[in-house]
Write a structure and sequence with these properties.
single chain; eight-stranded mixed beta sheet; alpha/beta; Rossmann fold
């Protein structure tokens, strides 16, 4: 009997020492799903054979930025992979994906017509992604969150306000360094601060042409042609039609929302984000003003593009904000 008691106690202690992660290890599954004929590839990070729990969709920044946050021009940034890994320490599954034109997804049917890849195509991809996530057996449909970085925040807010049949209800939103206004208005504000009166006049004329005719002058001064050109004007014009303030106003009242801005991110300084913050006042909004954090959520007060791909962890400020937010 004494030996049986010892054995029983040992078994209880052994079972107590088995964590949920031991029983249901975190795995990164390669997945794919359809978005209006385009096959999108991604990574579904979840606990193997676990019951339904909270799950998050991660939407990368604009440009050639893949599921991990790596950019074809800037280099391997890795911030979206880092967000997924941090969320898993908090018990939250995640889906991140290669949007059209990046990673394993590529251009698909848009290979012969890349100029047709406009903002609506990215939104369609995000919608397909969140529906895929909602259909996973490890997803609690009442605890779906969407986190977007930069332009990705536009698509995150669009999903939160979606009313189409079968659209999953979004429990909460994370808006990291979001676009604070219409695309061309953001560029105009930068030109006003840096350019000569002649350059500003040329740019304002170009903006008017883009918005009224959908075309752009063949030549723009001082590098502005790298921002918009005849080759990408269709995509720029479609992106510019999106008003983040209108999207913010359409987010359901009471939705938990995390918004970050930074004193050293020229794309998302806190004073510039104020109109968007005001437009989200009807939500359960948490604003976190980061210090010395760059646009890819790493500590770097220089705000230098050259430093974006330097290996670095998520800023501890971002981690702290995320840890507190996931409980809401």
């Amino acid at each position: 009997m004494k030996h049986l008691v010892v054995l029983a106690v040992s078994l209880v202690l052994a079972l107590a020492g088995c964590s949920s992660d031991d029983q249901h290890p975190w795995v990164d599954d390669e997945v794919s799903f359809d978005a209006d004929g385009l096959t999108i590839h991604g990574t579904y990070r979840h606990q193997q054979d676990a019951g339904p729990g909270p799950a998050s969709l991660l939407i990368s920044e604009s440009g050639p930025t893949d599921r991990n946050g790596d950019n074809a021009v800037v280099g391997p940034i890795g911030n979206m992979r880092q967000l997924a890994e941090q969320l898993s320490t908090l018990g939250t599954a995640s889906l991140r994906y290669d949007k059209v034109g990046t990673g394993k997804t590529g251009l698909g049917q848009y290979k012969q017509r890349p100029n047709d890849v406009v903002s609506a195509v990215y939104t369609t991809g995000a919608d397909a992604a969140v529906r895929f996530l909602a259909d996973q057996p490890g997803t609690d449909k009442s605890r779906i969150s969407v986190y977007g970085l930069g332009e990705g925040a536009i698509h995150a807010m669009t999903l939160a306000a979606a009313t189409a049949p079968g659209a999953p209800k979004i429990h909460s939103l994370g808006l990291f360094q979001p676009l604070p206004g219409r695309y061309l208005d953001i560029i105009t504000n930068r030109v006003r601060g840096d350019a000569s009166p002649e350059t500003l006049a040329a740019w304002l004329a170009a903006v008017d042409e883009i918005r009224t005719k959908g075309t752009v002058p063949d030549k723009l001064p001082e590098g502005l042609g790298a921002i918009v050109s005849p080759g990408n004007v269709k995509a720029v014009a479609e992106t510019d039609k999106i008003d983040p303030l209108a999207l913010a106003a359409a987010v359901p009242a009471g939705t938990p929302v995390l918004l970050t801005c930074s004193d050293t991110d020229s794309q998302a300084k806190c004073d510039v984000e104020k109109p968007l913050i005001d437009a989200l006042k009807h939500t359960a909004l948490t604003v976190v003003e980061l210090k010395g954090v760059n646009h890819v959520l790493h500590d770097d007060p220089s705000d230098s593009i050259a430093n974006l791909a330097k290996p670095a962890p998520l800023s501890p400020q971002v981690v702290t904000a995320l840890n507190a937010f996931v409980t809401k």
